Amino acid sequence: MRDHLGVFNVSSDLKFAKGILLLDDCEGTFTWSFTGTDANAAASFAAAAAFMGTNGMLATTGDDSPAEDDTLQIVKYVEVPESGLVVFRVKFGLPDVSIVKGVNVLINIHRDSKVYAAGLLYLPDTPGGYYLGDDGGYHEVAAWANAVPDHAWQMAEIVVDINDLKYISGLLNGVPADLSAMAVYDGGVSAGRFMTIGLNVTAAGAAAAIVYFDNIYVGEFLHI
User: Fold this and answer.
1) 8 Å CB contact between 145 and 129
2) pTM of the full predicted structure?
3) CATH, domain range 20-147+156-220
């Protein structure tokens, strides 16, 4: 997806507007990295996974030797924003709620020889929504405990101040949460200065978990 802010035709390919770090509508080339515990774990763009348009991202934990707690981790490097305020927003859909234990949305900040992490976890079967605390554990947000049916799409969002290493807010299925008092997790030693975003899927049992992702956005967050 390209960003066109003007009203006239242009003779070149315009890049994103300032402040937009990633805008992936899953219609182009698949450029994400992924790993999984099952040999057939996979992620790719597919028509069945589309929220809008032709394609979305189809993520599966794999069916080679499917087992409870099989995981799939999908990652992309993104720019470190100038302001230090970053929002990560994604739509996700569950074609079969019963086979998905969890969907995890993550920001990993590497700087000052450390890696820091902010995350939002949705457990559809419980149901429950959680944020990753500075102790490395996930803490429940009571307002996020909303069940959804098969084939329903949801929006997940986390907003983080990566300079102060604190959350600003979270959003799940239309329900906002003020997380501004919460620090992100100090995950230990790292090298370099960069940032990644992650989409993780965990299987509920001995069947491949399938999740659809679409309209993936990362950008600078502006206080209004």
Assistant:
1) yes
2) 0.90
3) 2.60.120.260
